Amino acid sequence: MSIREAIFLGTSSQVPTRLRNHNAVFLLWDDLGILFDPGEGTQRQMIYAGISASRITHIAITHFHGDHCLGLAGVIQRLSLDRVQHHVQVIYPASGQVFFERLRHASIFYDGATIIPRAVPVDSGDMEVARNGSSRIIARRLEHAVECIGYRVQEDDGSTMVPELLEKFGLRGRAIGDLNRRGSAEVNGKIISLSDVSVPRKGQSFSIVMDTRPCDGARALARDVDLLVCESTYLRSEETEAKERYHMTASQAAALAAENGSRQLVLTHFSPRYMRGDDFVKEASEIFPNTQAAEDLMRVVVPPRIASGTPSNA
Q1: What is the set of domains in the chain, with CATH numbers?
Q2: pLDDT tens digits, one per residue of 285-299
Q3: Residue range 162-168: mean pLDDT, rounded
Q4: Is 126 a catalytic residue?
Q5: Rounded to whole angstroms, how far apart are CA atoms 26 and 257?
Q6: DSSP code of 68?
Q7: How buried is 310 (Cβ within 10 angstroms: 0-12 exposed, 13-18 middle, 19+ buried)?
Q8: Which of 30, 31, 37, 67 is catalytic?
């Protein structure tokens, strides 16, 4: 069975604290390993989480403030040190090209990894920046003090076969394989289509929204998503400061999830002034009950999609 889960390597904004490392999230998604915003100390947190450098297939940077990228240099060098054989794509806003280049060659090291830069021109619409099989990575512009993008990992919509209907139509073995490949199969002279024995299934999805005010891009990323990881730098009492600094409060993150049909919300990127996440959960849960506050090294499974509908020949 494939694994789809988010691992929180760090949950602090701006600076690390005694309890929280610099921000970083690692998403395991089938054979993809996407490292989002590796802040300072990410290598060490990966060791604690049991994640090897060879598991990384993509690195996605939302923007080039230090708490979202200062660990990039070390991670890239680790890819070479561990002799990772596959190429690793690094996705980032094109306006930060100079900062990427500085981090890419920050010190002397054996440069043996294959790093594929993917500079993304930041515009207002959905931008597909990578695809792997039935899943794609989409970037969307956010509203921060510098150019910033959020990301969504989206599986294509599909279908789920109903065993009782397969049996009803006499579909077994090779015939089921034909049905999957071609969309139809012949049994006893009768053509059976995939829609006859299956129900629609929406593709799973994951979104990460960092360093932004509420905006159209954040709403698009949150829409009908299974797992929304959202910055929650402040509590409601600091809403004015949040707006001035282009961030969100716990209640704003919860409203983003509730108003756009998100299924599960995890808050992260907390200001170092706050020691615990309990107040964030309390504030957000009044608006969106299915909320957690991330802690370092916490793992959250992406909620599975449930097939729905009725087959045409049911």
Answers
A1: 4-157+202-301 (3.60.15.10), 159-199 (no CATH)
A2: 999 999 999 999 999
A3: 81
A4: no
A5: 21
A6: G
A7: exposed
A8: 67
